[in-house]
Amino acid sequence: MLRTRLSLHSILSALDLDTACLPLLEEAPGHEAILGAHTPHAVYAAIRDIGNILRVAPKANQLAEDLEERINIITHKLKFITDENKPHVVFIADIPPVRPVNDAYLETITRLAGGIPVTSFAEGAAADVMVVIGETPMQQLIATLPTLIATPEWTQTKAVKQGNVYIIHHPDHLRQPGALIADDIEILAEIFHPKQFIFGRDGDVWMKFEVQ
């Protein structure tokens, strides 16, 4: 399983710091451990470490607390939803050949958002929701996506049959853990459980793809 490295840029931006601070972080002890953070608690700790290194501890502590509070709201609501009522979710990239994305960060935030990650073709047919991580321009992706998912492996999935295909088209979301981790979980929560969560990110970050 791939492990996406922490987005230092997102954290520096959230702390109103310039990327000129990056060399200080790269030279600091524990730099590699900070970059390996991909779970919420590890991200909170990394933010606090960065705050201590760059001498902005109060602001970093507040950022970590705010992220934790937002994520806790979601996990509290979801604790009453059984696994039987959680969708099986497969992520795919828009680069052929289309295969499930096997990424530790996506798996973590999928579970926190009330989904069950699917990471292999063998489990793909059971996927209730397909999330496409778009890298190509939106119009091009919309034009080519029907062809990308037209193979038997994907046309037979519950997600495609039931029209539960979603596109993440914002370049900053669902790519890396960092200061946007709460946003990423909120985005997935409103896709997976639209009756319980409405964060208004439909349009600026994600859209439902109408399967023909």
CATH superfamily of the largest domain: Nitrogenase molybdenum iron protein domain
CATH class descriptor of the largest domain: Alpha Beta
As laid out across the biggest beta sheet, the strand order is 2-1-3-4-5
Low-confidence stretches: none
Backbone structural class: alpha/beta
| CATH architecture classification name of the largest domain | 3-Layer(aba) Sandwich
CATH fold type of the largest domain: Rossmann fold
Global Rg: 18 Å
The helix count comes to 11
How much helicity do the residues have? 40-55%
Give the N-to-C terminal Cα separation: 33 Å
Elements, N to C (H/E)? HHHHHEHEHEHHHEHE
Number of strand elements: 5
Mean pLDDT figure: 90
Tell me, what's the shape?
globular
Notes on the structure:
Helix content is 46%, strand content 10%. The chain contains eleven helices and five strands, in the order αααααβαβαβαααβαβ. β1, α6 and β2 (116-118) form a beta-alpha-beta unit. α4 (40-53) packs antiparallel against α5 (57-78) and α5 packs parallel to α11 (181-192).
What is the compact description of this entry?
Helix content is about 45%, strand content about 10%. It has about 210 residues and is of the alpha/beta class. The protein is globular, with a radius of gyration of 18 Å.
